[in-house]
Write a structure and sequence with these properties.
3 helices; 20-stranded antiparallel β-barrel; YD repeat-containing protein; about 350 residues; mainly beta
Length: about 350
């Protein structure tokens, strides 16, 4: 399920909006799941558009008030199958990333190159045959340091994932860190996916647990969220075992709390129109114990060709007044994104243009 990538680290990449039937294709964020197979980017509908137009590269530039190119924002390289092979985001936050594929079209490695705030090359490789993943940091002197290892195992309808972390990357520094994470991913219902994770220290002490859920309808994500595990443990009367630092709920206990609707914190919600296009999205990814957090609401507008032509973003929290931003998009006759205007309703809108190179 595509939505499950939200459970993992989300890394910002360049923007590339394309027309597609069913939902808005936005690559504001390239989701990277470092707990298993590397998903091919972009999705199949966007890839088909790139292949149909024989797109080889996409350059996003920012324009000045006279319509001349002010600077280059990003560059995307695309292979003949419509898959990303490289993304370079040149303005802050900078990002430089490369993908590699095997003969079956599966992504086998993802390399993130150094930037001003990240001095190491990060390499994540995945072997589909062995269901094993390895993340490494390559230092400037050429020395490779293992960060984590991943092993997947399918047991019936349950996917077991074991992740062993050897080194922690924090604020550009490598720290000695040993931990072990066991997660169970299963579907109690065709439209529901659950992930229950247990995190252990180097000495085998359970230090924390996490429970995430995803609900879909007709293959489209409806809601993604998590349980407050401390509250869930109290509801199930689960106490912390001796020599452990966190309560250990079973999948059945966590599922019961979810079905009761207690201790549940939705973090992402989607709304669709009759044509199954995303028309609204609400995101509250982080909440404190009082249930307070920053909420982002997105509203999408389409034309008769099912192309995304407008996006309204409203950000609000209890600490700051709400802020509204409007973005408008225009397309070439072949369906590719041609122009973008951010802060469209402000006194100083920002204009962007997309430039393409094609395979012969």
């Amino acid at each position: 399920m595509r939505a499950l990538g939200v459970f993992t680290s989300v890394l910002v990449a360049t923007s590339l909006f394309m027309a597609q039937k069913g939902c808005a294709q936005s690559v504001d964020k390239v989701e990277v799941d470092l707990s298993g197979p590397i998903r091919v980017e972009p999705d199949s509908i966007a890839r088909n558009l790139l292949v149909r137009n024989r797109v080889r590269s996409v350059v996003k530039v920012r324009l000045d008030d006279e319509g001349a190119v002010r600077d280059t924002v990003s560059l995307q390289l695309v292979d003949p199958s419509g898959r990303y092979t490289r993304i370079d985001q040149l303005l802050n936050p900078q990002l430089h990333r490369e993908w590699s594929y095997d003969e079956k079209g599966r992504c086998t490695s993802l390399v993130t190159h150094p930037t001003s705030y990240q001095p190491f090359t990060l390499i994540y490789s995945y072997n589909p045959a062995l269901q094993k993943g390895l993340q490494q940091a390559l230092k400037p002197n050429g020395k490779s340091i293992p960060l984590s290892e991943v092993q997947l195992q399918q047991r019936g309808d349950t996917l077991l994932t074991e992740t062993r972390t050897h080194t922690l990357l924090a604020n550009g520094s490598l720290l000695n860190f040993e931990s072990r994470r066991l997660s169970r991913r299963y579907s109690p219902h065709p439209d529901t996916v659950l992930i229950l994770a247990y995190n252990y220290s180097a000495i085998g002490q359970l230090v924390s647990t996490a429970f995430n859920y995803s609900v879909s309808r007709q293959g489209q994500p409806i809601e993604i969220g998590r349980l407050d595990m401390e509250m869930a443990a109290k509801l199930q009367k689960v106490k912390v075992a001796p020599k452990q630092a966190a309560p250990q709920l079973t999948p059945a206990q966590a599922l019961q709390v979810l079905r009761q609707g207690k201790a549940v914190y939705p973090q992402f919600r989607w709304r669709y129109d009759a044509q199954q296009r995303i028309v609204g999205q609400e995101m509250t990814p982080r909440l404190n114990k009082q249930g307070q957090g920053t909420t982002t609401q997105l509203e999408y507008t389409y034309n008769s060709l099912n192309q995304l032509i407008g996006r309204q973003q409203i950000t609000s929290s209890i600490y700051t007044p709400s802020a509204t931003a409007f973005t408008v998009y225009s397309y070439a006759p072949n369906g590719l994104l041609l122009g973008e205007t951010s802060d469209a309703r402000s006194e100083k809108p920002i204009f962007y243009r997309y430039q393409y190179q094609y395979y012969e």
